[in-house]
Amino acid sequence: MIEVSDFGNMDSTSPVRRRTGLDAVSAVEMPERLTAAVDAWAEARQLSRSDAICKLVELGLKIAPAEPASAQALISDATTIEEIAVHEIEALLDPALPADERERRIRRLTEGPPEFSKQRIDLPKHRT
After folding, report:
1. In the predicted structure, residue 87 carries a pLDDT above the cut 50
2. For residue 5, what pLDDT band results from cuts at 50, 70 and 90?
3. For residue 1, what pLDDT is reported?
């Protein structure tokens, strides 16, 4: 119950703030399918929808990384993946091929054919 007996006595410059001792209410908009899944999860655990959403958010926050992956980490991952790909391609190529032909084939497989370089979103765009 919120007491408002002294509401009229407050000066107009101070903000109106009532402490109820309860947590803040947050509205969450979800698709019907997600709401149904939350309701089913809540019913299986005998929780209200509100409590179920709180528990699910807590669980999600426990397993989610604290910070999004940095651009440097993504570049490092891409470089590692490319190195693994080059290693695997080298193992598949004929060892009798000349070194320059081996390099050309590896480059063509890792960078893609030049016909498609304009469609690649991970390569810098060349101005013409």
Report:
1. yes
2. very low
3. 44
The phi, psi pair for 101, rounded to 5°, reads -70, -40
HEC secondary structure over 88-107? HHHHHCCCCCCHHHHHHHHH
Whole-model pTM: value is 0.39
pLDDT at res. 34: 93
Name the H helices within 25-98.
32-44, 49-63, 71-92
Q: How far apart are CA 63 and CA 111, in angstroms?
A: 35
- Grouping H, G, I as helix, E, B as strand and the rest as coil, residue 1 is coil
45 DSSP assignment: T
In sequence order, the 6+-apart residues with CB closer than 8 A to the CB of 50 are none
